[in-house]
Specification:
The protein is mostly helical and 118 residues long. It contains six helices and no strands. The longest helix has 19 residues. The chain starts with a helix and ends with a helix. This is HTH cro/C1-type domain-containing protein. InterPro entries: Cro/C1-type_HTH, Lambda_DNA-bd_dom_sf. Pfam families: HTH_3.
Length: 118
Amino acid sequence: MILLRQLLGDVLRRLRVRQNRTLREVSTLARVSLGYLSEVERGQKEASSELLASICGALGVPLSQVLREVSDQFALAELQAAPVLAELPEHERLPIPETVPSGPEFEGFPEVKDMVAA
């Protein structure tokens, strides 16, 4: 089973390491204990939205970016865990659109068009 807290912890750790920051540095800036931040990064604790916002602030990264990365990782994990489409009975298959969605609501999201077109 895919655990959201583990994917979230992985993304937070990856961001921190990319910035060459220590757990102590980030925990001090985020005003969270070193041990708790470590548990969040290891996927052992569920972080509240307030705590996530504080950690993201300490990392200088918008919460929306972190959640987007987690969402992308979650989608990949689901795809890897899902059975091949041909193995699914017809009634369990998701409908595949015949046309690529367009319109102003998709203008800011070219990757959505690319994913649907693929």
